[in-house]
């Protein structure tokens, strides 16, 4: 069996169960019906990814959980 050019190794997935308000499920279904997401799983993964990116890139840095990387100026490295 040949591999296709666009075949990418998918990251390992964990199967979890969540409870969400019915309105969220309805809204996800609407996005799916419109063709904006292919599945509920995709919609939830996208929402989690965007949440984590925001938390790690903005909020946790602002709270001082990560030290800012500083590059010394050329004068300091001499």
Textual characterization of the structure:
With 78 residues, the protein is an all-alpha fold. Helices cover 45% and strands 0% of the residues. The chain has a domain at 22-62. The protein is built from two helices and no strands. The longest helix has 23 residues, at 40-62. The protein is extended, with a radius of gyration of 20 Å.
Task: List key phrases describing it.
mainly alpha, 2 helices, 78 residues
Q: How would you summarize the topology of this molecule?
A:
Layout: H1 22-33, H2 40-62
Q: Report helical residue fraction.
A: 40-55%
What number is the mean pLDDT?
82
How many DSSP helices?
2
Secondary-structure class: mainly alpha
Quantity of strands, as a count: 0
Largest sheet: none
In short:
Helices cover 45% and strands 0% of the residues. By secondary structure, the chain is mostly helical.
